[in-house]
Design a protein that fits this description.
about 80% helix, mainly alpha, globular, about 0% strand
Length: about 300
């Protein structure tokens, strides 16, 4: 039977796993060339629905904190990801974005006192190598602005993850998730009109189904699980789970679009999985020891 800690790891891993399906859902169901619109329709309605459910608003400093965290985790991250996706091949953008676990590990050591160890850095580098083998193509081209945007997006979300953990949770999980989704959507909304023009005149049933899937499953559910993991797990562990996103995206292409997998891609997928398992086991042992230390002494005195 799985322990509560393994369940926590697996539930947190659901979020990047679901995000990995975003690529195929966007390509197959959504209108073309409207990535920022998709980001807004993912975040803002989902946040408003959660807010209607919990009926709780930020208080005090959490007004600006929610806006900042929403911008870093969602708004700025999606905007820079959009620029990188348009100026770089997908494999290059994903590989550059895979530096995020290393960035989070370093920031967490500076901002919240998590120990910076050789094992954490090695896990981040192994994950980066695995993603590169998985998605990077030999004919990939580089664009300075695109690379900068991909790095900026990774840094934005890295800062958002560490600050989310540093500031804690002033209210329920659903409430704080709602605030961040709304904050991120508000940051993105003006960019949609500026960069993508007016909203489409009509949406097809496939478009509506795609937006519903991304909003309900890919955002409301996924971000709730993700932020729960951010609060309860070490920052470096949460960051490494993000490597599941390009892995799931590649497997979706293989399973649903009949894309072929090269030996290099299979090797990259194996490296990612081994890295995650090797990093998760010590974390689970650490939590088990902490639970034992908190348990009441059963020896009579």
């Amino acid at each position: 039977m799985l322990s509560n800690r393994w369940v926590l790891l697996l539930l947190t891993a659901v979020a990047p796993g679901v995000w990995g399906t975003t690529y195929i859902a966007t390509a197959e169901l959504l209108p073309p060339d409207r990535p920022l619109l998709a980001a807004v329709l993912r975040s803002l309605p989902a946040g408003l629905v959660l807010l209607l459910i919990v009926r709780r608003v930020p208080r005090g400093s959490w007004w600006w904190r929610s806006l900042l965290l929403g911008a870093l985790n969602i708004g700025v991250f999606f905007a820079l990801l959009f620029i990188a996706a348009y100026r770089l091949p997908g494999g290059v953008a994903a590989t550059v974005g895979a530096v995020q676990p290393i960035l989070i590990t370093v920031l967490a050591s500076r901002w919240i006192g998590e120990q910076l160890t050789v094992r954490k850095v090695a896990a981040g580098l192994a994950g980066l190598a695995g993603v590169a083998l998985l998605v990077l193509q030999a004919q990939a081209r580089l664009d300075l602005l695109g690379v900068g945007a991909a790095l900026g997006g990774a840094l934005a979300m890295a800062c958002g993850v560490v600050l989310t953990k540093k500031w804690g949770r002033p209210d329920t999980l659903l409430a704080t998730t709602a605030w961040q989704l709304i904050g991120g959507g508000l940051v993105l909304a003006p960019l949609v009109l500026l960069l993508e023009g007016p909203l489409p005149d009509s949406l097809t049933p496939s478009n509506i189904a795609g937006y519903a899937y991304l909003g309900i499953i890919g955002t409301a559910l996924a971000y709730t699980l993700w932020f729960r993991g951010v609060h309860l797990l070490p920052a470096s562990t949460t960051a490494l789970l993000g490597l599941l996103s390009p892995l799931v995206a590649t497997l979706c292409g293989w399973a649903l679009l009949s894309e072929t997998l090269s030996p290099g891609q299979v090797t990259g997928a194996a490296i990612i999985l081994v890295t995650l398992i090797a990093h998760a086991a010590p974390v689970r042992q650490k939590f088990a020891k902490a639970d034992q230390a908190r348990a009441p002494d059963s020896i009579p005195r």
